[in-house]
Amino acid sequence: MTLMNTSTLARRGARCALALGLSTLIASGALAEEEWPRGHFPLPETGNVIGENFTLTIQEGDTLVDLAREHNVGYEAMRMANPDVSLWAPFEGTEVVIPNQHILPDAPREGIVVNLSELRLYYYSSPGVVETYPISVGREGFSTPVGVTRTTVKVKDPAWSPPRSMREEAAARGEPPPAVVPPGPDNPLGRHAILLGLPSYLIHGTNRPDGVGMRVSRGCIRMFPEDIESLYERVPSGTKVNIIDQPFKAGWSDDGVLYAQSFPQLEENQGSFEPLLNAIEAVTRAFGDEQPPVDYARLRELVEAPDGLLVSLLQTAEQAPTPAEPAPEVDGLFGGELELSVR
Where is the active site (predicted)? Predict the structure, then answer.
């Protein structure tokens, strides 16, 4: 279990309280951007890029895992942004990147949107406001299903019944779990759970927050305890939940820069579509009626070596022209209604 210093815990508690107490002020536009609670961003008037990356200098006792949680970042996102820095024992004085800039998913801006490859949840909580939080999703063999559903029942301090497959695995190791785990520190659901219309799938907390931002669950969506507590208090039952898988996103910033963001493709989806074609389609959708000079060589690099960071795809005047790879006809390959697909 990760140990955090008192100042870290105090900062986290203050942010959670702020998120719970100031939602109405956000909805009314009464808050300045710099005062907004954890995970809250104004929807851009133009484009679809929110937040910004920044750097921090490691202090004595810091770990990247603690800094990730403090700054609303998941485990894998922090690891990819700082590939040469130890997650658990970074050297004091090391400068690290906090990846807090995001392209909004290519999906209707309503309710909750979960992007599986990104390991991130978006919540359009009120007009002009979007919230975003790191999550964990189902690991290979226990994939979180793609589809549209809704929130149903909210449960505080839930009991947990280990699924049959888990009981059988534990029994094979000689460690049979109890049929029911009561609320408490040993309960992997944490203290708050939001049930979904998909049977046996929930959005819930965790008693192992260090794993948030990884593929570690048996299909449910896990959040940091402070984040699920905030959503639990504010998400109405019946809220739409759109679970998508977009490993590559493209979009415009409000100052007219075309950005792309690429994430590792889910193992079970590898081979189901061609990543480069998928990326070209995403960029083409972002064009609209525009035809900007795209650096297709850079686009290919992003697809082949995803790191989750935003990168500009526009060629500069100083760049030598890169032969454009012709965008293939992709109509019908990725379109159509999103249907529930439990894998």
Answer: 204 (proton donor/acceptor), 220 (nucleophile)
Is 16 catalytic? The answer is no
Catalytic choice (40, 102, 192, 204): 204
Same domain, 88 and 188: no
Same domain, 252 and 227: no
- Which amino acid type is present at position 302? L
Q: Quick check: is 220 catalytic?
A: yes
Comparing CA positions, the residue from 95, 16, 87, 88 lying closest to residue 55 is: 95
User: Domain range holding 38?
Assistant: 6-103
Residue 19 lies in a domain: yes
Which residue type occupies 23? S
Query: Please, which pLDDT band fits residue 253 given cuts at 50, 70 and 90?
Result: very high
Q: Convert the pLDDT of each residue in 159-174 to its tens digit.
A: 998 877 777 777 788 8
The maximal CA–CA distance of the chain, rounded, in angstroms, is 66
Note the pLDDT tens digit of each residue in 85-96.
999 999 999 999
| Angle subtended by helix axes 275-287 and 296-304, to nearest 10 | 130
Q: What is the pLDDT of residues 166-204, one digit of tens each?
A: 777 777 888 877 888 999 999 999 999 999 999 999 999
Q: What is the CATH number of the domain that holds 176?
A: 2.40.440.10
The HSE-up count of residue 123 (CA atoms within 13 Å, CB side) is 22
Domain contains 332? no
Domain count along the chain? 3
Q: Considering the candidates 40, 102, 192, 220, report the single residue annotated as catalytic.
A: 220
Q: Mean pLDDT throughout 289-307? A: 88
